[in-house]
Amino acid sequence: MMRKSDNITRSKTVRKPPAAAEDGAVRVPAPGEGKRGEQGYLGYLLRQAHAAVRLTMERTLADLGVTSPQFAVLTMLNAYPGLSGADVARLTFLTPQTVGVIIRNLERDGAIVMTPHPIHGRIQQWTLTPRGATLLKACRERVIALEKRLARGLDSKTETAIRRWLAGIAADLQED
Length: 176
Prior knowledge:
Elements (H helix, E strand, L loop, with lengths): L5 H4 L32 H20 L6 H12 L5 H8 L3 H13 L3 E5 L7 E5 L1 H21 L5 H19 L2
Antiparallel strand pairs: 1-2
């Protein structure tokens, strides 16, 4: 196998040393600065935004005793009653093990109930209980407020375009 020449493998970009704080420590850029801003990779910026939204959601739902993964599970079971744990894991981007723990906790708290699949008895189907629906409603009110905050400053046409772009990324990259 041929080795790439030095002029191909070396970056032509001259890197500036990181800015140092007064005490000599390297200063980490805040969100929106440098590579954490418009100069950053799209994938990194999406992950950074997701982390900020998730942390805010965790704080918003904490006094209800609900985590953002639990909210995702409740949301999907409300939208698609009768899902199996494996289906919930796929829809919520969580591992089957994590979903198993979440489902056990939600079942213990009376928010969801299991019924065996009518044909495949080993498959467990999960649905919300009235208590789960009430809990989800309380969560949704808070999450909708967060969503409004996210869309602040966007007109409906721009918001629709962003939603279409984000959904398109997921659909396009799922094929890889």
